[in-house]
Amino acid sequence: MDLKEYKAAVEAMLFAHGEPVSASRIAQILEIETVVVERLLQTLRDDYDAGDRGLTLLQMEDRWQLATKPRFGEPVRKLLDTRRNTPLSQAALEVLAVIAYNQPVSRSFIEQVRGVDSSSTVTTLMEKGLIEEAGRLDLPGRPVSFRTTDAFLRTFGLESLTQLPPLHGDDLPLEQVADNGGQLPDEDPAEN
What we know:
The protein is 49% helix and 14% strand. The chain is globular, with a radius of gyration of 23 Å. It folds into 2 domains: 3-71, Winged helix-like DNA-binding domain superfamily/Winged helix DNA-binding domain (Arc Repressor Mutant, subunit A); 90-166, Winged helix-like DNA-binding domain superfamily/Winged helix DNA-binding domain (Arc Repressor Mutant, subunit A, Orthogonal Bundle), CATH 1.10.10. The chain contains 9 helices and 6 strands. The chain has a 3-stranded antiparallel beta sheet with strand order 1-3-2.
């Protein structure tokens, strides 16, 4: 391949992958030097920025991703809203909460917390790109674990998981709980 073909291949790979990918990974696949891929990526970014195109090439540390230019975000959002923006069910929100606060977690952990089969909900959340497989846990049977994605953070307007609201009682000093006989201040001991 000549440089034009490599540039076209890099563009096709970024388009098809859809997620950020490193220059070194592209170089490995194309079996060329990383420095060549980095120059091709810079050239592609310049091409997108110079023309009246709807796309741009974003660099996020050592990874690159094709993206919509901000000025075209609204029409693209409207198009995608009809396809992906169906509201999340209560079950989906519960599964997301279990995963977000405890990740990485297995499907059996999710089901143990919720008390019901969550297979279809996990599948739906994966299709929406809100969760992903996070490898296998070092437990008997080596179950697949799940974690939230960058799309989860964007969807809920978070920069990181540290911005998740505290769980009930997490924001109380342990001394206050201990002084109350292990009860949270708003719990009625008669209910337990």
